[in-house]
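sorry for the late reply, my laptop died twice this morning and i had to redo everyting from scratch. anyway the thing you sent over, i finally got around to it. pasting the sequence first so we're on the same page, its 464 residues, then the predicted structure underneath. double check i copied it right bc i was rushing
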Amino acid sequence: MKSFLAILFLASALKAQTVDRTKMPDTAPLAPFKLPVIRESKLPNGLTVLLVRDNRIPLVTFRLLFAGGGRLDPASQPGLAETVASLLKEGTAKRSSRQFAEDLAAIGGSLDADSGTDALSVFGTVLSEYTSQFLDLSADVVRNALFPQDEIDLRKENRVQELALQRSQSATLADEKLHRVIFGNHPYARTLPTPQSIGSIERKDLIAYRDRYLTPGNAVLVLVGDLVSEPVLLSWIRAGFGSWPQKPVPPLPGGSLPKPARSITLIDRPGSAQIDIHLGRHTVKRLDPDYFPLVVASTILGGGASSRLFVNIREKQGYAYDASAHHMGYRDTSLFNVSTQVRDEVLEPALHALSAELDRMGKEPVSAQELSNMKNYLNGVFVLGLASQDGVASQLAALKTNGIPNSYLEQYVTKIRSVEPDQIQRTAAKYFSRDSNAVVIVGDASKIQKTVEKFGKVTVEKAN
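ok and here's the structure:
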């Protein structure tokens, strides 16, 4: 009875306390991320191997990353790398497409490939007891892919249809144009292939890409999981990849980036039901001192439902369903990008609101609470992403391929936590300034051109 009365009294006391539900509860800062032990070696043919033991579950995660990816596409053939990746497991010199799928299923494995801006990746998982067989299959794919003609024809037909659907979206048109304006002649300017470039791809082009770029000296192999002893595992890796011929690593195409400058491009899309607004510029590499202040600043500006753009443009003003900002790191630079979609009648106030929020970041220091909340959010997402085998494997492969030390992962939490209000204000004033950001607007020019022209000189283009 006394215990019951004590609990009742405590409950009444807690209920009587005043709780300010307008404020987020305080979150204790996360401890710095600690990398697991990484065993690194290199085969005589130049293949870099990283091994990370994680015995929590009987699974092994595999990732083989090749530097280059889409940036290695010939200027006249964007889409070549993505086509190579999509067809790698559709038949090899040893196995038909069906036989490969059956062999993979028999060991409980999965294997796939994709190509991004800076790398082509082959990745998958397997039950740890079948690691040796899985390594044999993965080596077969990257070394001996045949690219059967019927699979090429089917892939090309499907990809052209996918592109038509993608380019029917105004957001895609805005993103494509923004990249072209920001990156100029750099390969980063290309985001999607064209139907013509896909149609021009022939089997010999796929084989030439494989033979030139899918080479051991251009690759990093990462295994994370329930691994056997290192000598045994390395013997399996050498059995599959050791005889892979060593070849010179070709230089990555790139070149200088255009100086960021103010521009406004209006893409005329007659009858468009909404207006897409994208703006941005290239900034700095990931090892630059301004990188982490920019990550925090862009997150405060537009990273999620508690960000300034979302709260103001959506919640307060009701101009848009969403408004966001991102800062994405590439090998040669990073991209700062803001995007939103609005109705015709609110275009002018929405543009003013975007400009005001960008200016405010560079003129006023962020509050201690706002900064603390975003730091905790960023570090939480980062650490959560490294909680899985795939998260560790993908991060290590990407860092190694891009020449960034592994310690970057251990320093991330501390670097984010160390960002101060004056750093955010300084970098925002420098990189968020309207004088250095390109603006792309997609909509019906007959309805919105005069409004857009109030914000500066406008170049009008027809939607493709």
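The chain has a mean pLDDT of 93.
thats about all i looked at so far, will dig more tmrw
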